Amino acid sequence: QVQLVESGGGLVQAGGSLRLSCAASGRTSSIYIMSWFRQVPGTEREFVASISWSGGGTNYAGSVKDRFTISRDTAKNTVYLQMNSLSAEDTAVYYCKATTFFPPDYWGQGTQVTVSS
Prior knowledge:
Layout: E1 2-7, E2 10-13, E3 18-26, E4 31-39, E5 46-52, E6 58-60, E7 68-73, E8 78-83, E9 92-100, E10 106-107, E11 111-116
Parallel strand pairs: 2-11
Antiparallel strand pairs: 1-3, 3-8, 4-5, 4-9, 5-6, 7-8, 9-10, 9-11
């Protein structure tokens, strides 16, 4: 199993920045993609960004491209999401997800990001 713990959420003014962290533990050798998703109450969870655990290749949702940057530190088993130029539309609970070579996928407990306008 893989355990994920997110941190770094909080309240920020529009135009500000936050950096989220997701620390993985357990069978981290089974991870091949790490992703961030976000969810507003009453809506579906949506993809934000992903990174290949080994090669570092990245992918972004169009709504966050050029504002958010996903990165990872494999030595620390941690993935980051640097969020810049935040707007009220970015307010959500942000979740970290680990996609492994063998199902199932694993999710963190989520961290709240609130952007005040």
